[in-house]
Specification:
heterodimer; A: mainly alpha; 4 helices; about 75% helix; globular; disordered C terminus; B: mainly beta; six-stranded antiparallel β-sheet; 2 helices; 20 strands
């Protein structure tokens, strides 16, 4: 009984923490979809955020990011043990995609590359890259912190079984 | 997370996501409402009210255009748009009239009007300057002038969140002005993009040739701002360490373009070259540092 009491808060954190993550991700994805819809309505160029991307490409970028975000939320919501390593890889790709796209365009046109993963965060109208960076940090934390927690909880369980 | 079979949960989540996508995108595309707060055009006066005007103004006069409310700490580009009708007395002697706005002790627009009466046809000349089109001037063969002027406001103008906007008028005492009216269409626009501009990137070769031999810089010019940059001109500002090449020019830049610029260095040592671009009434300068060149 003592072992179960110890484990309960961790299980509860896991359950409600994941629920919170899923809801926050869906809210974030909804913001991206809202922006994508507005950009697809051909707004005046003066009101479109300053960006190297056209309004249509910005909209497609946001749609793709929102879709990926919802896939990640679905994986977390429907799996008892989500693939955190794969999700961290997905988040890393999504986070680096925008500076990579700029670097590839620069290389194709200018023949030289300057790649800075933290540059030009403000050029997407919604915190898309910041959101993916948060996802990346969260997934890496869960991936690296979780094994230690299971090792710690394994000792009392073995003792309980032995008793 | 939920007590249902895994496949059903996945399908439910996917259907819910698809509905969310369809609803959000469709709603925003159909309504076209702007997601960020405050962006858009704010007219100075409601269309139903009579136009703001000064009738037979004194040589120094002021017209109160009412308070202008701007969001605090706003990033957007604030543009003042004034649509004016100026009516002079056709029997007035020649003279000059100046009009400018004022908010928070700062001004965005200055319009000068000159009245040149002549027996064969009187003339109104006007000129102004803005960041969108640079210097503008024109002539009207009439004693009435209708004109829309706009400019991006300076930082001091936009700093107070709520402050009155005034139109100041100054005229030669001899010049007789019948009316200065603010027409519908005047207001303040809060936008995300400024005037047409260029993002300039410069690639310098790793191995620099010795002085006297040509050095080629590769340039990438990408359009920015609310409009397509037109009449783009790129030149190297005079520098003691390079020979000034002839400037490059484009009618308009709709997509990123690549250009090469040949320079001839005069010295071996480190050198800074200033590249200046202009597009309409807007421009900027980019400094490029050239490292020490090879010796022969």
């Amino acid at each position: 009984m003592r072992v179960q009491e110890r484990l309960r808060p961790a299980t509860s954190w896991n359950r409600y923490g994941r629920l919170l993550l899923v809801l926050a991700t869906l809210l974030w994805a909804t913001g991206q979809l809202t922006w994508a819809g507005w950009l697809l309505s051909q707004p005046p160029r003066a009101f479109v955020p300053e960006s190297p991307l056209s309004a249509t490409e910005l909209a497609l970028w946001l749609l793709a990011s929102a879709f990926l975000g919802m896939c990640a939320a679905t994986l977390v919501a429907t799996n008892s043990s989500p693939p955190w390593a794969a999700l961290s890889l997905l988040a890393a790709v999504a986070w680096l995609a925008f500076p990579l796209r700029l670097a590839i365009e620069e290389w194709l046109l200018l023949g030289t590359v300057s790649f800075d993963p933290f540059v030009e965060l403000a050029e997407l109208p919604w915190p898309v890259r910041e959101g993916w960076l948060a996802w990346l940090i969260l997934c890496l934390l869960v991936e690296f912190v979780r094994p230690r927690r299971s090792q710690n909880s394994a000792a009392p369980r073995r003792r309980a079984n032995a008793g | 997370m939920f007590a249902t079979p895994r496949r059903l949960r996945s399908v439910t989540a996917l259907v819910a996501s698809a509905m969310l996508v369809l609803f959000s995108v469709a709603l925003q595309t159909v309504t076209g409402s702007e997601p960020g707060a405050g962006i858009g055009f704010r007219p100075l006066a409601p269309a139903s009210t009579a136009p703001l005007s000064l009738n037979n103004p004194a040589p120094e006069a002021t017209l109160d255009l009412g308070p202008v409310s701007l969001p605090r700490g706003a990033e957007p580009v604030v543009t003042l748009v004034l649509s004016l009708r100026i009516e002079l007395d056709p029997t007035s002697p020649p003279g000059t009239l100046a009009l400018w706005d004022e908010r928070g002790g700062s001004s965005a627009i200055l319009l000068r009007v000159r009245w040149k009466p002549h027996p064969s046809g009187s003339l109104v000349e006007w000129d102004t300057l803005d960041l969108f089109e640079g210097a503008r001037r024109g002539q009207v063969l009439d004693h009435r002038l209708e004109l829309t002027v706009r400019n991006i406001v300076p930082d001091d103008w936009r700093r107070p969140s709520t402050a009155p906007l005034r139109l100041h008028l100054s005229r030669d005492p001899a010049l007789r002005v019948r009316q200065v009216a603010i027409l519908a269409g005047s207001g303040v626009e809060l936008a995300r993009r400024g005037p047409a501009s260029i993002a300039l990137q410069v690639a310098v070769p790793r191995q620099l040739p010795p002085p006297g031999e040509p050095l080629t810089l590769r340039l990438l010019l990408a359009p920015r701002g609310r409009a397509v940059p037109q009449h783009v001109r790129l030149e190297v500002l005079p520098s003691p360490c390079v020979e000034t090449p002839s400037p490059l020019a484009w009618d308009r830049i709709e997509r990123p373009v690549v250009a090469s610029l040949s320079l001839v260095r005069r010295e071996l040592g480190p050198c800074t070259v200033s590249l200046s671009w202009t597009a309409g009434g807007h421009g900027d300068t980019v400094n490029v540092s050239l490292p020490v060149a090879r010796e022969r």
